[in-house]
Amino acid sequence: MIEPETVTYIAGVARSGTSWLGQVFNSAPSVRFRFQPLFAYEFKGRVNEDSSSQEFKRLTDDMFVQETPFLVQKDKLESGLYPKFVKESKCPHLVFKENRYQNVIEPFMRKCPNVKLVGLVRNPNAVLNSWMQNEKEFPPGSEPLTEWRYGLCKNNGPEDFFGYYKWKEVANLYLDLWEKWPDRVVVVQYEQLVEDSVKITKDLFKFCGIPYSSQTEKFLRQSSRRIPSNDSYYSVFKSKNVITKWKSLLDPYIVGEIENDLRGTRLERFLKFP
Q1: What is the pTM (predicted TM-score) of this model?
Q2: What is the pLDDT of residues 191-204, one digit of tens each?
Q3: Is it the case that residue 46 has pLDDT exceeding 50?
Q4: How many Å apart are CA 247 and CA 129, to the nearest integer?
């Protein structure tokens, strides 16, 4: 069995920018990137909170060697939503990203000490706004003022993490894990990554043991300037207006409730940018 030299887990709730960060890592010639393997047909149900270290390791080993259409997002590559990168022949570094199944992160990390976690946290107002603006993810007829707290219109099980309270749960989880394993976990604020993508990416690659290359540098420059003609919700090419776009769209009542709830807590930092 061919095994990866390093394993990096990119995590964030839906609409946090994990697709973009995933492609940033994918731009490294030495990386094999996998898209939401825990949701893929090949691996769905393979692990849960009670899985053993051997089961978690077999999962990463298997995703490292498999290149099915969903895992590599073949449709988005062919449509141009995702860029095509030049790769080395061996690609020893495995990187995968997940929005769902946040419930397995802690046991995954605890039982696989070789795995590193990058927790991406975006302003909850921006997350909620992006979710509600997405016709494919916010069910038709759903009311923002009814759904913003709990996301009941979308959450169908323990693997789903939509709504403000789920954002809080996940953000606290990442900070707890960062405090517990500072040598293996890092929490990144999405807005800071957008604003200073080159520096933060270099720091992340160093943290994860992945070489930084000119291909990544080029992608970072392009992704911050280019807006695709179809302006897809799933595009990894976004301008910097993604940081503040929510301010003109999200209901002020929701904004006020979130600000009041987070004031004086450790999560308040994610409302402050710059």
Answers
A1: 0.94
A2: 999 999 999 999 99
A3: yes
A4: 9
- What's phi and psi for 33, nearest 5 deg? -100, 135
Q: Of 179, 53, 28, whose CA–CA distance to 108 is shortest?
A: 53
* Residue 1 in domain: no
> Which DSSP letter does residue 118 get?
E
Q: What pLDDT sits at residue 224?
A: 74
In what helix (H) or strand (E) does residue 164 lie, and over which residues does it extend? helix 164-180
Residue 194, domain CATH: 3.40.50.300
Total count of domains within the chain: 1
Cα 213 from Cα 37, distance rounded (Å): 26
* Length in residues, the chain: 274
CA-to-CA distance for 29 and 210, rounded, in angstroms?
10
**CA distance linking residue 25 with residue 213, whole number of Å:** 11
Does pLDDT of 259 surpass 70? yes
Assigned domain for 257 exists: yes
Q: Is the pLDDT of residue 79 over 60?
A: yes
Strand order in the sheet with 31-35: 31-35, 93-98, 6-11, 115-121, 185-189
Give the integer Cα–Cα distance in Å for 95 and 165. 28
Domain assignment of residue 185, given as a range:
6-271
